[in-house]
């Protein structure tokens, strides 16, 4: 069975439907890019997949041992995080906040896993620094390390390069590519179709017409549309 | 100097001064612990709003002549806190507007009720002491202090046990939810504790000055420290010191307790701000 199987899903909030008829499958090791205009329901889709929003209709099935906590989420940054007093380490460790259950403190294994994740993203040398004083690219890496702490199989990334300068964005893409090569399944929202086609194995395009297929199929469809 | 100390020790030989000290310090500790999360989540004014609600509830309790006012004040305030904090950003009426409506509404209704129905001869005196806490803290009984000790022990224990989750939810509620933290439950828990602390703090500083206990220690700590744990620890320590100093000063120079504690907190904030400005150069 696939890691994630979504069938005929309708999305929305407060009773208002923003997108419907969404069906797709995610296999282990896939890199799925979700593209579409603003307001086409990309962020709502992510929130629904995470269980933060309930679907209006349709089904979301998780398989292959992907539990409720197996997904790591990289949300878009919120305004109030900009002046939040927190160290890099505190934020990365908070990825385990759900996994500790009713125990009050993190275990030694979780602490060393957090350190490993910081190493993977090259931020172990700034573990003691204050989050709000970091560059945009560094902040995204911190949040990605936190997502890794919460994930064992899948990452959901909500526009991970928005607001980054081109160099930092390029670095972010290569970090994500490396995580994918190491076996992490990726679902990423993106505005950047060129980058989506370069890195993703599959594309889900939301909007008036919903498309799901491999990156190659999506490229052909784009070319056909351009010729017409 | 020795004269000063003998004066202080004379005052502290009275049980009501000792009670005031114990209760004041404990309330300051609790409100500063909560203050950090409330300020960071943009709920700085919740203390003010809830204390006005509590003021309205006190008015109702006074008029009904119930002996233990807590039985009315606490439930009303807790319910309001849960409603205000739970809705977060999703409510039809935005958070700040809802808070303004509720607090001014409760204030007006409370004053009206007190004026129309009160049997007391000194209505403005009653109102003034509820608003500014003037001498209420010096009228605490032994059982009030016991209640204070129990509640602050509970607040501190909750804070220590759930510290990591409180951090996760405060920093990023959506992520915390996705990682399996029951954020809704923690929001409700914070709301209930906030209401309890506010009702307790009303005795110390009165309903108009409560925000001072909630925001100043947190903001002072945020001037000086850049990670969460030091901010929490420093704000708790500073709040306790300011409350103790404020109470001692007010006893010595006979100023109103609540206002003196609030001004001490403000002065401490000024000093912290100055230090951070000098360090920033």
What's a concise summary of this model?
The complex is a heterodimer of chains A (228) and B (281). With 228 residues, chain A is α/β, with parallel strands linked by helices.
Q: Quick check: average pLDDT of chain B?
A: 84
Q: Tell me the fraction of residues in β-strands of chain A, as a range.
A: 15-25%
Name the helix and strand elements of chain A from N-terminus to C-terminus, one letter apiece: EEEHEEHHHEHEHEEH
Give the CA-CA distance, first to last residue of chain B. Answer: 38 Å
Poorly predicted segments of chain A: none
Order of helical and strand elements of chain B: HHHHHHHHHHHHH
Shape of chain B: globular
The secondary-structure class of chain B comes to mainly alpha
Quote the average pLDDT of chain A.
87
The greatest interface here is:
A-B, 40 and 29 residues
In total, the number of strands of chain B is 0
> How do the strands line up in the largest sheet of chain A?
5-6-7-3-8-9
Range of helix content of chain A:
25-40%
Total strands of chain A: the figure is 9
Kindly, what is the distance between the CA atoms of the first and last residues of chain A, rounded to a whole number of angstroms? 38 Å
Q: List low-confidence stretches of chain B.
A: none
Helix content of chain B: over 70%
Beta-strand percentage range of chain B: under 5%
For the biggest sheet of chain B, the summary is:
none
Helix/strand-derived category of chain A reads alpha/beta
Question: What is the approximate shape of chain A?
Answer: globular
Structural topology:
The complex is a heterodimer of chains A (228) and B (281).
Chain A: E1 4-13, E2 16-26, E3 31-35, H1 42-50, E4 57-62, E5 71-74, H2 88-93, H3 108-120, H4 136-150, E6 154-158, H5 166-181, E7 185-189, H6 193-199, E8 202-205, E9 211-214, H7 215-227
Parallel strand pairs in A: 3-7, 3-8, 5-6, 6-7
Antiparallel strand pairs in A: 1-2, 1-4, 8-9
Chain B: H1 2-12, H2 15-40, H3 46-64, H4 70-87, H5 95-117, H6 123-132, H7 142-161, H8 163-171, H9 173-178, H10 183-205, H11 210-224, H12 228-253, H13 257-280
Helix pairs in contact in B: 2-7, 2-10, 2-11, 2-12, 3-4, 3-5, 3-10, 4-5, 4-10, 7-10, 11-12, 11-13, 12-13
């Amino acid at each position: 069975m696939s890691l994630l199987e979504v069938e005929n899903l309708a999305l929305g909030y407060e009773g208002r439907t923003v997108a419907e008829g969404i069906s797709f499958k995610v296999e282990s090791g896939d890199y799925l890019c979700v593209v579409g205009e603003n307001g086409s329901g990309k962020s709502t889709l992510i929130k629904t997949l995470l269980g933060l929003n309930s679907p209006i209709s349709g089904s979301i099935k998780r398989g292959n041992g992907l539990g409720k906590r197996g997904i790591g989420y990289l949300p878009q940054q919120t305004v109030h995080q900009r002046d939040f007093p927190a160290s890099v380490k505190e934020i990365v460790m908070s990825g385990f906040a759900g996994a500790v259950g009713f125990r009050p403190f993190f275990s030694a294994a979780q602490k060393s896993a957090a350190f490993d994740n910081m190493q993977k993203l090259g931020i172990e040398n700034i573990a003691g620094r204050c989050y709000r004083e970091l560059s945009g690219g560094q902040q995204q890496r911190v949040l990605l390390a936190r997502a890794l702490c919460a994930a064992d199989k899948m990452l959901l990334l909500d526009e991970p390069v928005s607001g980054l300068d081109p160099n930092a964005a390029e670095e972010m893409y290569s970090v994500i590519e490396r995580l994918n090569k190491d076996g992490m399944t990726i679902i990423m929202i993106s505005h950047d179709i060129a980058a989506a086609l370069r890195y993703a194995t599959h594309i889900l395009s939301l909007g008036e017409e919903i498309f799901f297929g491999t990156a190659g199929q999506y490229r052909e469809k784009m070319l056909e549309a351009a010729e017409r | 100097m020795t004269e000063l100390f003998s004066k202080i020790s004379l005052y502290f030989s009275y049980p009501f001064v000792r009670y005031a000290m114990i209760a004041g310090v404990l309330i300051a500790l609790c409100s500063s612990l909560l203050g950090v999360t409330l300020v960071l989540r943009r709920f700085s004014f919740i203390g003010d709003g809830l204390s006005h609600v509590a003021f309205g509830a006190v008015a109702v309790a006074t008029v009904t002549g119930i002996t233990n006012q807590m039985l009315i004040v606490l439930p009303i305030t807790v319910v309001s806190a849960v409603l205000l904090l739970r809705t977060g950003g999703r409510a039809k009426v935005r958070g700040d507007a809802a808070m303004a409506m509720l607090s001014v509404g409760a204030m007006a209704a409370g004053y009206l009720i007190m004026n129309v129905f009160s049997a007391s001869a000194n209505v403005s005196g009653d109102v003034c002491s509820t608003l500014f806490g003037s001498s209420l803290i010096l009228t605490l009984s032994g059982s009030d202090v016991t209640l204070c000790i129990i509640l602050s022990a509970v607040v501190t224990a909750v804070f220590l046990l759930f510290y990591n989750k409180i951090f996760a939810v405060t920093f990023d509620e959506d992520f915390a939810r996705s990682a399996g933290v029951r954020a809704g439950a923690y929001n409700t828990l914070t709301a209930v504790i906030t209401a309890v602390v506010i009702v307790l703090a009303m005795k110390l500083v009165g309903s108009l000055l409560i925000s001072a206990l909630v925001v100043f220690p947190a903001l002072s700590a945020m001037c000086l420290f850049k990670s969460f744990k030091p901010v929490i620890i420093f704000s708790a320590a500073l709040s306790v010191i300011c409350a103790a100093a404020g109470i001692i000063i007010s006893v010595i120079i006979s100023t109103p307790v609540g206002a003196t504690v609030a001004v001490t907190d403000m002065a401490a904030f000024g000093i912290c701000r100055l230090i951070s400005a000098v360090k920033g150069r």
